[in-house]
Design a protein that fits this description.
With 217 residues, the protein is of the alpha/beta class. It has a single domain, classed as Rossmann fold (3-Layer(aba) Sandwich), CATH 3.40.50. Helices cover 38% and strands 21% of the residues. The longest helix has 18 residues, at 53-70.
Length: 217
């Protein structure tokens, strides 16, 4: 699979939780500017979930469930630095598995590690990510693990914007991707819960279809 999956109830619950604790903010009338320079009506910071034990536990349970159902237990759990390290540790602890994490770039001193923790060739691995946008940085972590000889079964994320570019990138990398929730479900939940107006929906959908050129009218 190369798309967000899972029971609709889980996806809706995750979306509602992210909105409730303001881990996701929707501002179609006052867009954010991402580091890439994109103007965006949405900003997502899943680190905030770590401060809410009930939500943090629910996310961990659902990540474990997807891994068990879709991949079976791997030899090791890997997190993508920095946003997925804590969630990856929680998953590894729950499954009784070793944990490692992958840096965005190798350290420039000491052992110059790109992967922190002990890994061995031919170990199977599932990668935990907090957020999927284009997927490039996430797949760089997958490549780093494969370069060390690990067998990456796939990746599981908390949230996925659902960009076509990301789906293509994961498909080309032959890396199955599963996500607990996604942008489409989030918009539905935001309208239902009154976080945004129904007439904001068109602008939000337009942004996702072409985020690099989207501008608020």
């Amino acid at each position: 699979m190369f798309e967000s999956v899972g029971m609709e109830t889980t996806a809706s619950n995750i979306a509602e939780f992210l909105l409730q604790i303001k881990a996701v903010k929707l501002q179609p009338d006052n867009p954010f500017t991402w580091a890439s320079g994109w103007k965006s009506p949405i900003y997502c910071d899943n680190r905030i979930t770590l401060s809410h034990p009930r939500i943090r536990t629910y996310i961990r349970q659902e990540l474990v469930k997807i891994i068990d159902d879709s991949f079976g237990p791997p030899d090791v759990i890997a997190g993508v630095a920095t946003g997925a390290i804590a969630h990856g540790v929680l998953v590894a602890e729950a499954m009784g598995l070793p944990f490692v994490y992958v840096r965005s770039s190798a350290k420039d001193h000491g052992r110059q590690n790109l992967i922190e923790g002990e890994v061995k060739e031919t170990q199977s691995c599932v990668v935990i990510e907090d957020l999927i946008s284009t997927g490039k940085s996430s797949l760089a972590a997958v490549k780093a693990l494969r370069d060390k000889g690990l067998i990456v079964k796939g990746m599981v994320s908390i949230f996925n914007y659902g960009f076509d570019e990301a789906l293509d990138n994961f498909r080309h990398a032959n890396c199955p991707l599963y996500s607990l929730s996604n942008y489409d479900i989030l918009i539905q939940e935001a309208i239902k819960q009154g976080y945004i107006r129904k007439d904001d929906e068109e602008s939000l959908i337009e942004w996702r279809s072409n985020p690099s050129v989207w501008r608020q009218k």
